[in-house]
Amino acid sequence: MKQRKPFLARFILVALTVAALILIIYLLFDTAKSRNTIEDSQKLSDLVPQPIEDDSSTHTTNFEVLEDSLKDMGFLITQEYYFTLAEQYTKTKKILFFNAESSFTYSYDGVVEAGVDFNKIEIEKNDDDMKIIIKVPDAEIHNIEIDPDSFQQYDVSNSIWVKIKLQDYNTSLSEFQEKAKETALDKDILNKADKNAQQIITNFVNNLIGSNNNYEIIFE
Question: Is the pTM of this model over 0.85?
Answer without folding.
Answer: no
